[in-house]
Amino acid sequence: IRRQSIRNVEEGLVSMCEERARMLQDRFAVSVNHVHALAILVSTFHYQKEPAALDQETFADYTARTAFERPLLNGVAYAQRVVHTQRELFEMQQGWVIRTMKREPSPIQDEYAPVIYSQETVSYIEALDMMSGEEDRENILRARATGKAVLTSPFRLLGSNHLGVVLTFPVYREDLALDVTEEERIEATAGYLGGAFDVESLVENLLSQLAGNPEIIVKVYDVTNASEPLIMYGPDLPDGFPSPSHTSMLDFGDPFRKHNMVCRYSKEP
Ligand code: WA2
User: Fold this and answer.
1) 139 exposed, middle or buried (CB, 10 Å; 0-12, 13-18, 19+)?
2) Which residues line ligand 1 (CB under 6 A)?
3) Measuring CA to CA, which residue among 192, 180, 184 is closest to residue 143?
4) pTM higher than 0.90 for the full model?
5) 111 CA distance to ligand 1 centroid (A)?
6) What number does the ligand 1 atom closest to the CA of 192 have?
7) Which atom belonging to ligand 1 lies closest to the Cα atom of 155?
8) How far is CA 111 from the centre of its chain?
9) What residues does the CHASE domain cover (predicted)?
10) I need a surface site. Which of 31, 40, 226, 261 has the fewest CB within 10 A?
11) Are 46 and 54 in contact (CB under 8 A)?
């Protein structure tokens, strides 16, 4: 009887963890798909129309009205690729200067990725060169070289200082053939559409809706480097007592990154 009840407790942990992992992964995938559609919106209305049929006001309005489609993102934005020789003309047309993430006028760089359209919830990144932040820069370079959606490792986001990850889709000036080279992709890059998953507050919100009885502690890790897991969500504290844990796999859609969820009971069962 005792062995049976221990088994039940363990099965309970497995099913609660799997349920949470599936829910998080699904919400994540829904948000990524909608950002993909926004990248196509920018391509269609900014680049395939002459003159461009998109402006900040339209982008802000559309992204506010469709925010429910992206439940785990704090906001989305579009950063345009600007090479140095175009900087002066670009700044004159915009009426502002490109700034670094520290809000200083940008020093000279080969190229920049200033935000020209933003959802109001992240308006603080407007005019900022997203290549001036290490994590965002790596994302931009990998997105445009692969043509795919990419994720950063977890870091502290601008604005909230919450732990999260940034998602980036590349936008190209024209449709690319399937067999184009990496150099051709980079050359055809128009900009980057992306947003931040505020994992610390939005995942908390999601998991608290599922608060179970008995309570469990949920942690999410970036385990891309298996020997050095990076905490993405949850208390990064040593566990109070040795208790069995269950690890559920997570797939956030970027094959370059690996994630998992680790669950354990918060109290001795
Ligand atoms: N968006 C919101 N908060 C952030 C952030 C970000 N990046 N980076 C740090 N805090 C416009 O990849 C292009 C969004 C970056 C996209």
Assistant:
1) buried
2) 77, 79, 115, 122, 125, 130, 133, 136, 139-140, 157-159, 166, 168, 192, 194-196
3) 192
4) yes
5) 17
6) 13
7) 9
8) 22
9) 50-262
10) 226
11) yes
| Short-list 203, 149, 168, CA closest to 21 | 203
ipTM of the complex: 0.99
Q: Which two tokens stand for residue 64?
A: 């506010």
Per-residue confidence in pLDDT tens, the chain, 269 aa: 678 888 888 889 999 999 999 999 999 999 999 999 999 999 999 999 999 999 999 999 999 999 999 999 999 999 999 999 999 999 999 999 999 999 999 999 999 999 999 999 999 999 999 999 999 999 999 999 999 999 999 999 999 999 999 999 999 999 999 999 999 999 999 999 999 999 999 988 988 888 777 788 999 999 999 999 999 999 876 665 667 899 999 999 999 999 999 999 887 65
φ/ψ of 13, rounded to 5, equals: -65, -45
Q: In what order do the strands lie in the sheet with 216-222?
A: 230-233, 216-222, 259-265, 245-250
Identify whether the C-beta of residue 218 lies closer than 8 Å to the C-beta of residue 263.
yes
What is the largest distance, in Å, between two alpha-carbon atoms of the chain?
78
Which among 254, 257, 248, 236 has a CA at the least distance from the CA of 24?
A: 248
Count of all residues that appear for the chain in the document? 269
Residue 191 is inside which H or E element, if any?
strand 189-197
